[in-house]
Design brief:
Number of strands: 11
Distance between the termini: 39 Å
Radius of gyration: 13 Å
Shape: globular
Structural class: mainly beta
Length: 123
């Protein structure tokens, strides 16, 4: 079964850290770009970070310097290390596989999504 499964979400105080994981199965993992999205209550889903198979990364301005995306192709896993968390980082975080090796900012360019993991940052 082709799927992405996120884990690592939870409740944390502002200033704290969380590390999200996304395990891929049923697919050849080391080729396509991967991304992390998030959706806050009442807001549109937004792209947080992307990573190519070779490890090139891009971040939304709101998380630059605080979040780090990485991947372990041997373990079919992509990570999102989140430091200095703020209440506005609260939301459901989704892992997504890009259709191509080059990541984009368009939802339509991602063809496989995980079920999401909740991140709640208290003030």
């Amino acid at each position: 079964q082709v799927q992405l499964v996120e884990s690592g979400g939870g409740l944390v105080q502002a200033g704290g850290s969380l590390r999200l994981s996304c395990a891929a199965s049923g697919m050849i993992f080391g080729i396509n770009a991967m991304g992390w999205y998030r959706q806050a209550p009442g807001k549109q889903r937004e792209l947080v970070a992307t990573i190519t198979s070779g490890g090139s990364t891009n971040y939304a301005d709101s998380v630059k310097g605080r979040f780090t995306i990485s991947r372990d192709n041997a373990r079919n896993t992509v990570f999102l290390q989140m430091n200095s968390l703020k209440p506005e980082d609260t939301g459901v975080y989704y892992c997504a596989k890009a259709r191509d090796i080059t990541p984009t900012t368009a939802d339509r360019d991602y063809d496989l999504w995980g079920q999401g993991t909740q991140v709640t940052v208290s003030s």
